[in-house]
Amino acid sequence: MSAASIRIVIAALGGEGGGVLGKWIADMADRNGYQTQTTSVPGVAQRTGATIYYLELFPRSAIAAAAPVLSMFPAPGDVDLVICSEIVEAGRMVQRGFVTPGRTTLISSTHRSYGIAEKQHWADGSADKLAIATVCEESAKRFIGFDMQATARAHDSVINAALFGAIAATQLLPFPREAFEQTVRDGKIAIESNLATFAAAFAQAEQHAASLAAGAVEQFVPETPPEPQRSANSEAGRALLARIEQLPEQARGLAWLGAQRLADYQDNRYAADYVSALERLPADAELVAESARYLALWMAFEDLPRVAQLKIRSSRFSRYREEVKAGAEQPLHMVEFLHPRVEEFCGLMPRRLGLWALSSTPMRKLLGLFAKPRHFRTNHLSGFLAFYLVAGLRRFRRGSLAFHEEQQHRQRWFDAVVELAGQDLAAARELARCGRFVKGYSDTRERGLRRVSLILDAHTTSARSAEQLVALRELAVADEDGAALRAAVAG
Amino acid sequence: MAERSFKKEVEHLRLGAGEVFRGEGILAITKALLQSGVGYVGGYQGSPISHLMDVLADSQEILGELGVHFEQSGSEATAASMLAASINYPIRGAVAWKSTVGTNVASDALANLASSGVTGGAMVVVGEDYGEGSSIMQERTHAFAMKSQMWLLDPRPNLPSIVELIEHGFELSEVSNTPLFLMVRIRTCHVTGEFVAKDNQPPQFNRDSVVEPSRQLDKIILPPIIFEQERDKIAKRLPAARDYIAKHQLNERFAGPADEVGIVLQGGLYNTAIRALERLGLADAFGNSQIPLYVLNVTYPLLPDELLSFAAGKRHLLVVEEGQPNYIEQEIGLMLRKAGSNVTLHGAGLMPGFGEYTGTMALDGMAAFVALTTPAGIDADAVEASYQGQRQGVNNEHLQLLGDNIVARPAGLCTGCPERPLFSAVKQVQQERGTQFHISADIGCHAFATLPPFNLGNTIMGYGFSLAASSAIRAKLPHRAISIMGDGGFWHNGLTTGVASAVYNKHDGILIIVDNGYSAATGGQDIPSFVKPENLIATTREERPDNQPIEAAVRGVGVEWVRTITTYEIAEMKATLQEALDTDYAGLKVIIAEGECMLNKQRRIKPQLKKRINDGVRTVKERFVVDPDTCTGDHACIRISGCPSLTIKDNPDPLRVDPVAYVDNSCVGCGVCGGNAHSAILCPSFSRAEVVYNPNWRDRALRRLRDGVIGTLQRRLDRQQLRSAL
């Protein structure tokens, strides 16, 4: 065949402005001797869904009399350039066949914009972006992937400018860098920051292309955080760390983090209790690591004093200010949304008093006056001092009703893990992982605790294997109220 | 104020003869209407025709100068009824809507119009919402054209072809006294391109030059005239139309060397078919095909003479017809049979026979056709080799990996949407009552509540039909029937079809009307209850003015129990729902859930806020924050919200494995996540940040005082923390 069009797919998420990027490319091509056609699908996809724009560029020099016939759709196996604003969308383009080895250049930002199924998951339902990036790299003739959102943010601009820079760097389109930059200028909006982003992304894309030739895609999609350093600063700390260093090596990092967390939560004695508990376990790295994680989180459960303690930290204040992009001197109000229940107030009381208050109707009514939706302004003196006082109540925590109840639940679980570890190590690991259900507040937390106790009940009735425990865990999250698990346990 | 403004683009509508018009399909269509001398235009929004309505609304100045009357019709039936102006008088008119849903709504008026016949050209521009991106059930406008006998134009998807066919369309309508459809597919509406313009034609009649009222008895839809009209359709109008179509060659024949075979296709599929042929090595980039093509730019009526002449001497014909049933193929088969032709006919079977014909489907179909018929002059083996080369596909291992990791992205409510708190409230009431509601849902953004995370809604029967849809099931439910309707649907249909009928039938159920001030799902067009947004209580929390139109309307048809609630007040909404479910009052209970569409609100207030800040006026900007310290990663907040700005990020706490909730920078501070944390007793992690711009002396003094005291206490806490650290 003689002349053919250049075929470009832009995959974007609704509201991201994929159409603007398409217009930039079309305008640039139009001014540089190409006839262009753009098609898109307006409609519900633009309400937060995934959508694609399709462009064809045809050299005017190749047009004699009749106009070229350009396609309305991208066709699998027939696309030269695919541009994606997000890595899962890049994967979707590969899945739909728009990325052909030996033909298609694929440009994608590697950041994530999570779908509702990923976000609403009770634990972690997020996709494996490294797997997707690897497929992208293997599927495309050339894959340019890095976090272009970060590039754009660094220059206070939008992702389109970064994508445009990456496109220019591939030199796939027959237009010089100046033509790209002129197009940004002609857009007349945020020219300076857009050009800075463009230039940064251009350089990153060139560097990416060079280093990808040398190594794997992992370097652009970092995933694992580094292992924390273990060093103690006090006598008590050194003593505890020495004991932790006796645990299986892979569990020590988590155990040390856990001990530090509990010292902060309560005191050194509490941290020592934690290490003693871990010492009851056989020296199995996986078992000790999982137990160290969930035992620490459970022991540091978020009661009112803990929440108050975390709310008033200076580190929180500075992180908060940074997150909302407020200037150092700018007045910033922090309005906390709290809704403590009668149960939380009773939980703070000494155990017997708390139990009595819970069962006393007049007392519940009285407490009900305070147990309601409340706004606290942490940056105001009244709000700060209220939190300050409540945070101080943690010195009475050990005698409180909530502490007692959590301890009972936790002890039952941990004892079962220890006991099982002597008989069936694999099953014990799975039982330890049930600690993951224990999180959240009020109803959410109660549902989690019920899940753990249902699984423990089932296990007590007849010992379950590792596979059976995994199956029970999956049933436990099959629905919001745990009906599937109850049915399985009853049956 | 619609979502997209065409104020700049509509200036192209003024281009005169010889000038080159560059732009989108919808603008080209509008330009063609003006070049054809239309006297009036109207329509109802809905993708893919929404932007055409926006273009018309934005070009009112130009329309006014020309003397073209414009109405933003209350429904498609309203728009279709406008065409009555063309029955008695030589006035050209055009209306537009989304099809087939809009055609369904309009069909009563259309059927009567088609029976009467027209004097002036009458055109219905339908955006055929079929295939990728469609939001409705999959049907064809073709059936309406056939049953009412209206002609159906389906131009090749390039601007010159569309414009030319519109101009011919008015002539065709007039010579055959028949209204017609111009059908454009989703992507055609927004395809960009260029054509050489002509001058706009001002209509013969306008405000200053009025018609002389004239009555023609043969245009009235009453017996016995209707029998004469039917005879006229077949005996006069159809032959007249066929003559015009043939004479002006509205259908196109493209010769090719492999003339043992031929392809008959709808005009709208031309580019897709050519691209498939090009990829198989059977055509070049300019559409020169080796296989002869017969392109139907008019898909109803068909022309037997033209078709038989194209088929003459061929062994095989392939009909490429999108959608089902395959009316065109059936009719061609009948023509060939009646003419005693022995051409073998292919169509549905070789082609999928349903669904949008994408590039791959066309490629598969054409390749199969060549392989089956091996026409002389075509190297079938070479075609097969190209085909195999084009269809390598993705390797299985990759598909598996991607299948496990590519998440679906169902449409959802926008960031800050006022409908979100309503559905959060419904979901919480459902949880608190320990029951699953049967809910009659409706058309509009609120239909997204049927998807995760809300999963609320059982049926969608049509625009404004939700209340009517619960009229039978209400007698069989364990709870009072709940119907949810938007303000758009309410004005379109719901007031009469739903509310008036429900009151008359003593419907003991609940109707929630979502009043966001616009026809939001279609792109933020204005609707009858549109009030100055500043007056919506949800916007300013000012005292609600009397006589909210929707409330007045429902009271006017006899509803006694009406509550108007700001959607963002989740606790109040929950209490009202509970009251409606439990009250002794037995009639229809209407809850008007008010809150301005956030997309429109942001478009409105963003420039205002920016100006205030730049002008040095004290301004407070709000947004929400989730504390990663206290967030335990259970995501209960997301399951009752689904806000795009409420997302997740890696947990900064190395002890925890599950991602924490996180509010990103797109947050508009609507307060729903905080409201939910309160009303559903979720967690203490939500916090509203109020950032003060251009602080006054009081702000500054208080900040210094507070920061001084708090800073001292915090330093003390920091020292304590350091002392007690291990």
Which protein chains make the most extensive interface, counting residues with beta carbons within 8 Å of the other chain's beta carbons? A-B, 133 and 126 residues
The helix fraction of chain B, in percent, is: 25-40%
Number of domains of chain A: 4
Structural class of chain B: alpha/beta
Q: How would you classify the helix and strand content of chain A by structural class?
A: alpha/beta
Number of strands of chain A: 8
Gyration radius over CA of chain A: 29 Å
Q: What is the CATH topology classification name of the largest domain in chain A?
A: Pyruvate-ferredoxin Oxidoreductase, domain 3
What is the number of strand segments of chain B? 24
Low-confidence stretches of chain B: 532-544
CATH superfamily of the largest domain in chain A: Pyruvate-ferredoxin oxidoreductase, PFOR, domain III
Q: How many helix segments of chain B?
A: 26
Overall helicity of chain A: 40-55%
| Oligomer type | heterodimer
Major β-sheet strand ordering of chain B? 3-2-4-5-7-6-12
Plain-language structure description:
The complex is a heterodimer of chains A (491) and B (726). Chain A is an alpha/beta fold and 491 residues long. Chain A folds into four domains: 6-213, Pyruvate-ferredoxin Oxidoreductase, domain 3 (3-Layer(aba) Sandwich); 225-300; 304-399, no CATH class; 402-491, no CATH class. Chain A has 23 helices and eight strands. Chain A has helices at residues 18-31, 87-95, 116-119, 129-139, 148-154, 159-170, 177-187, 191-214, 235-244, 249-265, 268-279, 285-299, 304-311, 314-323, 342-348, 351-359, 361-368, 381-392, 401-421, 425-433, 442-461, 466-476, 483-490; strands spanning 6-13, 34-40, 50-59, 81-84, 105-109, 142-146, 332-338, 374-377. In chain A, the strands form two sheets. In chain A, strands 2-3-1-4-5-6 form a six-stranded mixed β-sheet, with helices on both faces. A two-stranded antiparallel sheet of chain A has the order 7-8. In chain A, helix 1 crosses helix 6, helix 6 (159-170) crosses helix 8 and helix 15 (342-348) packs antiparallel against helix 16. The longest helix of chain A is centred in the middle third of the chain and has 24 residues, at 191-214. Chain A is elongated. By secondary structure, chain B is α/β, with parallel strands linked by helices. In chain B, strands 3-2-4-5-7-6-12 form a seven-stranded mixed β-sheet, sandwiched between helices. In chain B, strands 16-15-17-18-20-19 form a six-stranded parallel β-sheet, with helices on both faces. Chain B has a five-stranded mixed β-sheet with strand order 9-11-10-13-14, with helices on both faces. In chain B, helix 4 (76-82) packs parallel to helix 6 (101-116). At the A-B interface, strand 2, strand 3, helix 2, helix 3 and helix 4 of A face helix 9, helix 11, helix 14, helix 16 and helix 24 of B.
